[in-house]
Every structure is written in structure tokens, then in C-alpha cells.
Sequence to fold (274 residues):
Amino acid sequence: MPTPHYGQPRYRVIADQLRERIESGSIPPGGLLPTESALTSEFRASRGTVRQAIAVLRDEGMVTTEHGRGTSAAPIRQEQKAKRKPDLEIRYHEVTADPELAAIFGVEVGATLIAQQRVYRTGGFIESVVRTYRLPR
Amino acid sequence: MPTPHYGQPRYRVIADQLRERIESGSIPPGGLLPTESALTSEFRASRGTVRQAIAVLRDEGMVTTEHGRGTSAAPIRQEQKAKRKPDLEIRYHEVTADPELAAIFGVEVGATLIAQQRVYRTGGFIESVVRTYRLPR
DNA sequence: AGAAATTTGTCCGTATGTATC
DNA sequence: AGATACATACGGACAAATTTC
Fold:
């Protein structure tokens, strides 16, 4: 089967239509979108393409998806800007060296170190927290 | 987007970075790597390229991937890459959760956590100290 | 309480078209 | 011309969370 992507890719077309339903209230705030399987039938697209379309809306903050439950239209009216992207799970900050770090790095206790923290989670479960310390440059 | 592969092919560069994360403990043994889709975003590479990178690590035995689940760093298998960094120190100990860790793990401040610390050095210079925290089981 | 069905999450293999080095 | 890379798309399979029976 050909996969020509002239003009608009299919997943964007699908995303546009779903966005229209949400903005028009056809899908009420908080309401569930059709399942991926239903959308697959409706748009006669593969599940991957449907999921890509939903991912677009998710990135826009228009919908939220819950494993095993479904995808629902954002509950509240959003007037937020395109400035999003909080939950990065990676944080940088400066810390002061505890006695052990100080000994390892050969600095004084309380000296400034650069710390990086990553949080690993599978689903909602926190697997581990990794903190990496380096000397400031 | 350009496709500059000056020195190394893209997939090798990505493979190197992922390998580094595993060897540094940033991705703990047995821990899940980011999904293909996440790596696609992070490295701004296509899925094919990301999969090629993972294939490299799989051939090296650094990771195993399970259908429908994800790709995880190989469990404890040290001697495989013994030539890499023989002089790294690893310590295990129990610690009490500081307020931030407590918040992340959803436990009380002072609760017991399992900590693992690795020190990376090149020659005599301390590169970094990596501390990994997990819930006791 | 427990099994089954539903639904989303992820990976696999493959394919086509486009673009760049 | 060939290798590398990107974007898109399909269909299948297994995994995991949730809901339903």
C-alpha cells in the first residue's frame, strides 16, 4: 500500500477533526473520546495513526489519556498559552556538599556542587531517583 | 531536516549515549529505558534510527527488550565490560528520606530508602557521584 | 472476590516516499 | 549511486491498567 504524504498527513487531519468535536462541544469537557479501536474504524486508519492524532491533542493539552480507561477531553476551559511542558522529570540545581561528597570531591563541606536529578517511573510507580553530583565548572 | 553524518552515523551516537547512561547507573540495572517514542523526541531522530541504536545495544547484550513491555538495561552483569572503568567504587547503604525524596516516593520524611552510590573517576579526577534511591521491598 | 472483556501502552516488522550527504 | 536519515503508515502481537460481569 502506498503511503504518500502529500499535503496534510492523515494523523493531522484526524487530529483536526477530533479537535473540532471538542471545541464545538460535540464531545463535552471531561467526556470520553471514542476508543482508539472505534476511531480506527471510523477513519479507516491504523491504530498507530489514530494514536498519533491523539498524541497531537495531548501535546496541545486538549485531552488527557488514562491507561485502561480512555482519552477524555480536557475538563476545564483552557486559556493557557503554548507554554507548557512541566513534568520533565529532570531537574538541575545547586546543592551544598555533605561530608561524604565533600570527602570524595576533595572540597569543603558546604561547598557548591551541581546536582542533577532524574525520576524514573513506570506508570505512576516511582522506580528510582537518581542524583548525579559534579563539581561546578 | 538535514542529515549530516559527519563522523559517526546517528544511530551510533544515540547508542553511545544510551550505553553511557546504563554504565553510569543513570539507568539502573533492570530499569526501563525510555520508550522508542520518548527517545524519538529526545534525540529528535526517527523511530527507525532509534530502533537501530537499541539494536546495537541489544547485540552488545547491554539491554534486553520485551515485546509489549519495553527495553530494560541488562541485570547485573559486570565482567562483560570490565575493561571499561575498573576503578569505580560502589557502595550500598540505607538512608532516611529527605523531604524531597519523601515527596517523590510518597513516604514519610525519615522513612528508609535503599541507596546505591557510584563514584566515577578518570585517572585521579572525580567525574561524578551518582546516587540512586529506591524503595525497600 | 475473581475472571473476563475492554482499552491504552509498547514493541515488532515492514513499506513507501522524500531528502541529504 | 549508495548510504544514511526522516516522516509517514500499516498490521500484528504482547503487556498492563481499568472496568465490567
Q: What stands out?
A: Residues 1-6, 35-37, 51, 65-71 of chain B lie near DNA strand C (CB under 10 Å from a C1'). Chain B is about 30% helix and 25% strand.
